[in-house]
Amino acid sequence: MSTRREFFQDVAGAMAGIVFVGCGLMDVAEAQPQSGSAVPRRQVVVGGRRVKTVDVHAHCAVPEAMALMGRNVSPQALLMVQEPRQERLRQMDAQGIDVEALSINPYWYGAERDLASQIIQIQNEKLAEVCAVQPDRFVAFATVALQYPDLAAQQLEEGVKKLGLRGASIGGSVNGEELSNPKFHPFWAKAEELGALIFLHPQGMPDLEKRLQGNGLLTNVIGNPLETTIALSHLLFEGTLDRFPSLKLCAAHGGGYLPSYSARSDHGCLTFPDRCSKTPLKKRPTEYLRQLYFDSLVFTPEALRHLVAESGASQIVMGTDYPYPWTSTAVDHILETPSLSDVERAAMLGDTACMLLGIVKA
């Protein structure tokens, strides 16, 4: 049996090629949690049962892969310089998070095929290596070159079957093309075939960048959820969700604005039926919310209650957006939302994510 020192030496070796960064792979020095001494691991209990909690929304980056496109992560963006995994685990233990699903936001959609293949191979192998060091605490989503859908399908299959990754993370669009474009059908078909969870994270709205300038970080606080809303709406209205009804798709940030105002989608087709006749849907638009998954990053108990009302508690999984400090209380956000049953709380905290990601429950 290895000693604790040998364990952390193994950890340091695995972590040498990976860093934990925010959504934009940028300098997050001002946003990072502060290092500190070890803390007791918080045990989350619901209705007398120990629940394995899972965070599906946690970012990282592989500088070696980024360098192939001339991109760099600032040294100040490193959250934990000397003992990266140990500090990550300290934060998870303090918050009551048992497992994190790591993802990398796409920056490679503009790369040509050979370069994209090289980037994806480096990233996926590094993600698999990191997770292998401590599989009880980390799983990961594969990265894929979605600009080449056939290649992305191959990368997803290899990531899941060969490397043990649990699905794939993708952006909200690909070089200005909607995810509902038929060219992406091979990727969706492979994801459905594998039963792999696809985590959709926005990349912002460059078309609206001028209007989103100014105070308030509107490119993020408005632009990111807006892109998710548009992406999901196209997948719904263009028939992608009908074509792949068993697809497991999880949208970050509570699905953007779609669940908050989804009834307008129903009434739009009733009021203007000619605008919904190109691709007849099998269900009302609001019904598709119950075949999608959403993370819980909606900030208030009322927002979470409403998301539950629109999609069902079975469709919500916990997300923190770590290491950005949007929240350090994701567990309590779910535990303290009124009107939820113990079964619903346990589902959102980890039971559903364990099922989707192939994690053995506590």
Structure write-up:
The chain has 362 residues and is of the alpha/beta class. The chain has a single domain (4-34, 51-357), classed as Metal-dependent hydrolases (TIM Barrel, Alpha-Beta Barrel), CATH 3.20.20.140. Helix content is 38%, strand content 10%. The chain has 13 helices and ten strands. It has a five-stranded parallel beta sheet. β9 (293-295), α11 and β10 form a beta-alpha-beta unit. The longest helix has 21 residues, at 113-133. The two termini are 24 Å apart. The relative contact order is 0.14. Residues 1-15, 26-35 and 76-83 have low confidence and may be disordered.
- Major pleated sheet: 5 strands, parallel
Distinct helical segment count: 13
CATH topology-level fold name: TIM Barrel
CATH hierarchy class name: Alpha Beta
Intertermini distance? 24 Å
In total, the number of domains comes to: 1
The strand order across the widest sheet is 6-7-8-9-10
